[in-house]
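User: Just a sanity check before I run the rest of the batch. Below are the structure tokens for the first item. I only need the designed sequence back.
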């Protein structure tokens, strides 16, 4: 991208491009190797423009982690919104989105693992992590409740919350192992595995989610 073309972008577009360049550099060179110079080169801008928008490399890295977490949630949420028909179909699409590209990605899980190591001892990263997972849980709860209602199952707030936490753990485990693609099993198996396990966890009749289209 030329500097002239870059200047026509909005502030949000500029920040997004810089964040995406940061993620590319971190994936290629690690946190320490993702220098401001490399990020600027990847984005096709000057280091001064990087500092203008983010102030420091650390601020860029924090924003990159928040962006990555938000991407994963947004992709699954959009897939659910696009589903037509019953609540079952929306929940199904949300779950499948986490087990298929672009969310199912070795690069994304590697980036997530790189960032998450900082959650334990850096307050800013802990806040980003907590808020990202809170949003994901809220979305799951909102998708689970109408499914339980449709099937005459308990759907109080506490029940939906417990189901969302359990489903989140199931999604995370399959997402990490599936994205790494170790060769123990094919990635194509993952959506059906998640749907079957989710049905049992929620107490739904067999094939409730797999029948949703």
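Assistant: Here's the designed sequence for the first item:
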């Amino acid at each position: 991208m030329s500097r002239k073309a870059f200047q026509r972008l909005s502030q949000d577009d500029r920040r997004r491009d810089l964040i995406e360049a940061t993620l590319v550099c971190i994936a290629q060179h690690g946190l320490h190797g993702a220098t401001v110079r490399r990020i600027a080169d990847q984005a096709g801008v000057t280091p001064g423009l990087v500092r203008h928008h983010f102030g420091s490399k650390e601020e860029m890295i924090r924003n990159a982690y928040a962006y990555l977490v938000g991407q994963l949630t947004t992709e699954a949420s959009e897939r659910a919104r696009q589903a037509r028909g019953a609540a079952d179909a929306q929940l199904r699409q949300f779950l499948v989105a986490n087990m298929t590209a672009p969310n199912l990605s070795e690069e994304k899980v590697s980036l997530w693992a790189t960032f998450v190591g900082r959650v334990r001892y850096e307050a800013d990263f802990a806040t980003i992590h907590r808020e990202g997972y809170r949003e994901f849980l809220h979305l799951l709860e909102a998708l689970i409740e109408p499914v339980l209602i449709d099937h005459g199952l308990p759907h109080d707030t506490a029940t939906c919350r417990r189901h969302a936490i359990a489903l989140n753990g199931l999604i995370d485990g399959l997402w990490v192992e599936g994205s790494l693609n170790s060769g123990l099993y094919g990635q194509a198996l993952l959506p059906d595995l998640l749907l079957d396990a989710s049905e049992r966890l929620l107490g739904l009749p067999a094939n409730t989610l797999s029948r949703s289209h």
